[in-house]
Amino acid sequence: MKHTLFAMMAALGVAAFTGHAQAASNYAALDISALVDPTDTYHFIPGGLNDLGQVVGARWDTSSGQAVGFVTGANGSGFTNLPTPAGYDFYEPLAINNQGQMAGVARSRENYNETVLKTGPNGTDPTHVAYFGQRVESESIHMNERGQIAGAYSVRFAGDRQGFVTGANGVGLTEIGNLGGIDTIVSGLNDRGQVVGRSRVAGTDYKSHAYITGPDGVGITDLGTLGGTASWATGINEKGQVVGGSNLSGDRTYQAFITGADGTNMSALLVPNSLASFARAINDSGVVVGSYYTEGSGEGRGFITGPDGVSPTELKALLPEGVYAASPLAINNQGQILTWASNNRIYLLTPVPEPEVTILALCGLGMVAGAARRRGLVRPAV
Q1: DSSP string of 14-39?
Q2: How far apart (Å, rounded) are the C-alpha atoms in residues 33 and 62?
Q3: Alpha carbon distance 248, 330 (integer Å)
Q4: What whole-number distance in Å separates Cα of residue 44 and Cα of residue 68?
Q5: Which residues contact 364 (CB under 8 A, 6 or more apart)?
Q6: Entry pTM
Q7: Measured distance CA(134)–CA(162) in Å, rounded
Q8: Given this model, what pLDDT does residue 24 score?
């Protein structure tokens, strides 16, 4: 019976704190840039964020011209420099899953053409995934829990991009189709292997539309727009909810959007007092982060929504005075957010439990314990 009580108490506690993390009103900030290089002599290249709060990326040494990969511990604690795989001079790890597997781009000084690599935790066992003979779009590299890797590479002589997704553990490769205009960028990948991004639409004067593929990158569907001529998908969760931005009818300004499951029913995310907005990422609860702009301001500010994209509000964080979250890059299922800030540094934001939520959770646990005692589920200690 004690196990039943403990399970009830744990469930109540987890529900209270998880729900809070999804709709936190404030966040503690960890300066990942300073953690990786306190002297700030490196140019920081952010990569991915997993559900453990590990951040992966690279730092660019402007004096030596070399990129050095790194990965942090859970919740951004500490970091490890990652070895550059043999035969390469540069290595940028750009994605990490919950197993600690990483995917990134490597190249040599003599041959600028780039190779996609997969590694185990802390850069172990580097495995060649694909060599395209052209530049790989660094910002397009994504990795899921099955070890699938999605990205895009430049098509020789054409300047256009071709999207791709691998099989499990980086084995095999499928080229993603297009919407008739060749150029296809990859911006997100879920555990079913659904890929999202943007692809040029034939006959539209080089305009691109957001797209979603079926599982394992098979088939491609045009998600349309919010009434304008162009759109761009930037993230996808396990339900297949897609986020991004689209212009409106007769307007060149972009508006953030969210869809229903599997990319259905695109709708606008109306950030209060914003002139323009763009969604960047979504977690499995449907919490969305992105940037918005106000009238007369050229600086973006971060926004966050509740579950399923409801009630967008400004993303407020405990940052240095005068600094604000400007451009969120990722959000995990803990509600942690990786973001550029207005001081041009990268921060990991972690939800701060509000005192009243903590008190309510503890009161709830007390009520459960009291009810259990009255029902004889827990006997007093002898």
Answers
A1: HHHHHHHHHT-S-EEEEEHHHHH-TT
A2: 15
A3: 25
A4: 10
A5: 12, 16
A6: 0.84
A7: 11
A8: 66
